[in-house]
């Protein structure tokens, strides 16, 4: 049996002006792991945030051109396990802080893996990359990783298909984000996790936030 739980976290109040955030042109890469008992595999959801300033400089060079994103997964022996690539377009005008958020999902058995994401401007050759290490669950876990999101809403009649930038988890539509950010204009974050019960019998538990 699997239970999907979603809730909202109230953010702390902002009582004074926050310093201006320095523009960061690094790729942000984050993964959330879920367990699939029917496959005995770990389902990995990877979130990649690509700041447009990583591919087009502040002077606008590269704006409006295409860029390619390549995601690769290697196992602990450096053997390739999964490769995925696609092409997108940089907006003609690049504003500070603007970014694209991409989502990739794949299954892995128990073990250790390395995930690499590369974004490359096809016109200028400018690129940025990020890597991280992850592990597939080696036994059925009690709970999945925590998925943080700027917004989660429940599926309702007439609202069952994810919109651009969303993914569906059970009965919830989740806004994808590699780094959910809070501020005066957005003071609430949301979280989603899966709780796994052993066998088919009902279990009760308590979650404290």
Topology of helices and strands:
Elements: E1 2-10, E2 28-36, E3 41-51, E4 66-75, E5 80-89, E6 99-108, E7 111-121, E8 127-136, E9 147-149, E10 152-154, E11 166-169, E12 172-175, E13 188-196
Antiparallel strand pairs: 1-13, 2-3, 3-6, 4-5, 4-7, 7-8, 9-13, 10-12, 11-12
Order of helices and strands: EEEEEEEEEEEEE
Number of domains: 1
Secondary structure class reads mainly beta
Task: Name the helicity range.
Answer: under 10%
Shape: globular
Low-confidence blocks of residues: 1-23
**Span between termini:** 23 Å
Gyration radius, rounded: 19 Å
* Widest β-sheet, arrangement of strands: 5-4-7-8
Main pleated sheet: 4 strands, antiparallel
Q: How large is the count of helical segments?
A: 0
Examine the secondary-structure arrangement and name the CATH architecture: Sandwich
CATH superfamily: Immunoglobulins
- What does the oligomeric state look like here? single chain
Strands, count:
13
Integer average pLDDT: 84
